[in-house]
Design a protein that fits this description.
about 80 residues; mainly alpha; 4 helices; single chain; about 0% strand; about 70% helix
Length: about 80
């Protein structure tokens, strides 16, 4: 069981680092002055889910859930 805990801890650390990197790679959500002129209604604004930004958001959500699950599993006193 000690080997499983070590493996899960290593996976947890990798998920933590990846989550930090993904959050830092994302752009801010503030609209800024672009909202006044309607710049948010461009092609990239409408298709944000298929762009790199959409991929980063999706990966962040997946890693956040994985982070929470691993944190709960590692906090159990089963090991």
């Amino acid at each position: 069981m000690a080997v499983l805990k070590i493996v899960l801890t290593i996976v947890f650390i990798v998920v933590c680092v990846a989550l930090v990197v993904l959050v830092l790679m994302q752009e801010g959500k503030s609209a800024g002055l672009g909202a006044i002129s309607g710049a948010a209604e461009t092609y990239w604004g409408k298709n944000k889910g298929r762009s790199m930004e959409g991929l980063l958001v999706r990966l962040t959500k997946i890693l956040a859930v994985l982070f929470m699950v691993l944190a709960v599993i590692l906090n159990l006193n089963v090991f």
